[in-house]
User: What shape does this take?
Amino acid sequence: MATAQSVIQARKLFVMSQKNEGGRNTYNISFPHPNTGATMNISFRDNIPNVKFANGISYKGTSLVDPIPLTVFQNAGLTPAQAKGLKLVAKHEGNFDAINSWDSAIFSWGFIQFAGGVQGSTLGSLLLNIKIAEPRIFEALFGQFGIDVVSAGPTGQVSVIVPERDTVVKDNEAWTYIKDNKILTAVFIRAGNHPTAMVKQIEHAVRNYAVPALRKANTTVTLAGQSFPINPLSQVIRSEAGQTALIDITVNQWITKTGAWFKNAIEAVGTKAGIKNFDQLLAIDEKAVHTQMAADAQGKDKRIVDRMTSILNSGLSFAK
Assistant: This one.
């Protein structure tokens, strides 16, 4: 078990220099790659102007999703088409070692930005999954540096040793400490370069985002004066491009808003096409639906515009 003294020693693995320019700190940190041992050098800045959390950073990362074989995504429970879709979604979010600690959550990590310190956060449970499945790897990536997680209801409760105060902080206080302590921020960046952490991120994304998007996202549309429940939405939105959009919006905004965006677009396209029954609804032009969503979001939500435009230009098929 880590102690204040052992944590101080372990954190010396990270060598950091800091420079202040115009009120913003630039951090240059070097450390050995968690798998190969080769020296890694990273750099990021804090104090992004006009943000929710002071001292937060935005780091896109270099541990790329693209080289990961589709079979890894399929082994996590996706079809080949859905696997292609989740890889595209990652391009809208980040890499395996990406960090976001300035906007809606106190601290987010990974290729779809698993959040810690916000309602419905999944980062704690991701860490718990790594610890349970691979305890020695968890210790090497997190535990020795004073980061721990235990089961707490449906999620994991994160704690961090604060050696300078010889105390332990938990939950949001822990995430805030990780955000403010740039060595601990680098601990997560380093962990995102370990193959096991990558696979566990993929499994967690499938379980917590892709599966709900495909099985739980739903809506009810009104066409020709009739109501048509679509539960799940994937009953109608069946193409590889369409299911990518289901996952993408769910990752970004969760399933309730996924249903709302599709409802408006399906009703607009369905009305124009003269759809009057469910069989016709099943055959709806999905490319037209996605084009309509991009149009609906203009001036309202740039995230939806950008994501739908990316999917429309991706080469993914809209064939059912």
User: Anything to note?
Assistant: The chain has two domains: 4-208, 216-312.
